[in-house]
Amino acid sequence: MTTSRRKFIKISALGLGAVAATTSALNMFGSSSYLDKLVKENVAKKLKRTPTYCEVCFWKCAAWTYTDEEGAVKKIIGNDDDPHCYGRLCPRGTGGVGMYNDEDRLKTPLIRKTIHGEQTFVEASWDEALDLIASKMNGIKEKYGAESLGLLKHGAPGAHLEHLYKAIGSDTIAEPAYAQCRGPRETGFNLTFGSWVGSPEPTDIRDTKCLVLIGSHIGENMHNSQVQEMSEAIDNGATIITVDPRFSTAASKSNHWLPIKPATDIALMLAWMHVLIEENLYDKAYVEKYANGFDELKAYVSRFTPEWAYGITTIEPEEIRKTARAMAHAAPSVIIHPGRHVVWYGDDTQRARAMSILNALLGSWGRRGGFYLKESISIPKFPHPEYPHPKWGWHEIGAKYPLAQMGITSELIQASIPDENNPYPVKAWMVAGTNLTKSIPQKKLIEKAIDALEFMVVIDTMPMDVTGYADVVLPECTYLERYDGIRSATNRTPSIAVRVPAVPPKYDSKPSWWIAKEIGKRMGVGAYFNYNDYEEVIEWQLNEMGTSLEEMKKIGVKNFPRTSGPLYIDEDSTYIFPTHSGKIDYFYFFNKSKSYRKSSLGFGLYGSRLWK
């Protein structure tokens, strides 16, 4: 593509039949008198309920969608049996009705065309749009290899398209939720405990005696069950410590508010470690039993006094000591919360390491009121041929980040900018479920990469910034109108939830599983989509798990007994951590061959390195 060929087009301003003008909240939800009338009408109507789980945020709370006799969606209510929400949805979750009714939704496929010298989007049939996508993607695959096709995705649609990409031989896949939200957190905790934090985080807030929030805005972002448990903890007298430059909602509920200077969190945590160790406040029995590298840690933090930290953080030394002692007094029922949206200053993995090591010193991992031992249930894989093995993918693109365990979005974007020294050129993007130009920084760099692409597809429910850069825009139906993969996430006990369409797709929108299947057929990999409807996949998986779609439609959520062992570490036995040492790694040595071994030097939390 030549420079500046791809012009940004704001879809909502086109005036096409495909996209209506903006509607007001009044039209979407009605006036108060209309709502009163609606309530009265519903009293006389019999509402049908259909199970779903929310797609508005990462918590994916299970719910019931209620529709009337005419098939109109009336309300969404949390499922009482769901450990993600305890029957209560947040305002985002109940707002799913508005997403379904929004007149600004994408309504039909759109193709970028030049008419009278001006670029615009024109309405297209699904066959026309899908044939174009398959033709372009196959042409790029033939010329550069399947690996040059990049996928940037999020949420349920991303899972279906990832299957498509792997079927055609591409593992050039990334999602902003990893690179920009939780990746450093997962790496930091994995290096220490051998386990990702995951989602929902295994924080035992309901039984904690001390909750420490470092830039974690529970109550402002939507950790549904954790918000509820935090309220319980406050009522039960738990000590809340909030570290935040702002007087946040959480800070207003806290016993201690530490208005820290931005970008100095690690200095504060090193000082906390210093106090815990120098005053012998750490959990000695836990550390003696499970620590690998404690002596090196002790020697390393000996210089990081509260007085030293005061000059960096602006937090008074006595407040640092007081809060460290409060944590120790509550231990092991204490949580230094790992947070979410953790990419801030460039030292984010080191900050997560410091958080995890603090938890380890206090003995909170695997203990009541700290972090419980999470468990999930595996969903059987629907049979399909073995995926072809790509020559390169996200590992190679992100080689300078050897600790990353998923594709890094910024590296995939960088690989899309022409460079004769780049051995891994990305020539096309498919973007699904993420407003890419708003979800990651350096917009000019993104636009430079987009301008260089030979082809770009965007799949979403709504027109937004990123849709304006696409060659083809495909309208996905909302989560209330489609089947999707079975939800299985880590929690205190394993559970599954199903998403069943409560109503047919509005307009000419389609579910992402159908889009992936139709593109796959046109690209010659139809064998990987051996089903007519995704309902068949879910039915097969549920039967393999000893239940059925018929049962799940009635209950929505199914909870299973734990099989991996107790919720907390058995104090009378020795727990084996899934780390290289089998213990908690306070200290380790890392080299480029990705091997780990103990070394007499090498902590490097404060500064530019996590290891030596």
Helix and strand topology:
Elements lengths: L24 H5 L2 H13 L3 E6 L8 E6 L5 E6 L12 H4 L1 H6 L8 E6 L2 E6 L2 H19 L4 E5 L1 H14 L4 E2 L1 H18 L16 E5 L9 H12 L3 E5 L5 H4 L3 E3 L6 H14 L5 H7 E2 L1 H8 L4 H8 L3 H14 L3 E3 L11 H14 L32 H4 L11 H7 L12 E5 L3 H4 L3 H10 L2 E6 L11 E4 L11 E2 L6 E3 L14 H11 L11 H11 L4 H7 L1 E3 L24 E2 L3 E2 L5 E2 L15
Please characterize this protein's 3D structure.
The chain has 612 residues and is α/β, with parallel strands linked by helices. The chain has three domains: 1-20 and 107-175 and 407-476 and 511-530, Rossmann fold; 24-101 and 482-507 and 534-561, Phosphorylase Kinase, domain 1 (2-Layer Sandwich), CATH 3.30.200; 180-373 and 582-597, 3-Layer(aba) Sandwich (Dimethylsulfoxide Reductase, domain 2), CATH 3.40.228. Helix content is 35%, strand content 14%. It has 22 helices and 21 strands. The strands form six sheets. The chain has a seven-stranded mixed beta sheet. A four-stranded parallel beta sheet has the order 10-9-8-12, with helices on both faces. Strand 4 and strand 5 form a beta hairpin. Helix 5 crosses helix 20 (512-522) and helix 6 (155-168) packs parallel to helix 20. The longest helix is centred in the N-terminal third of the chain and has 19 residues, at 126-144. The protein is globular and about 75 Å long. Mean pLDDT is 89; it is low at 17-40 and 590-612.
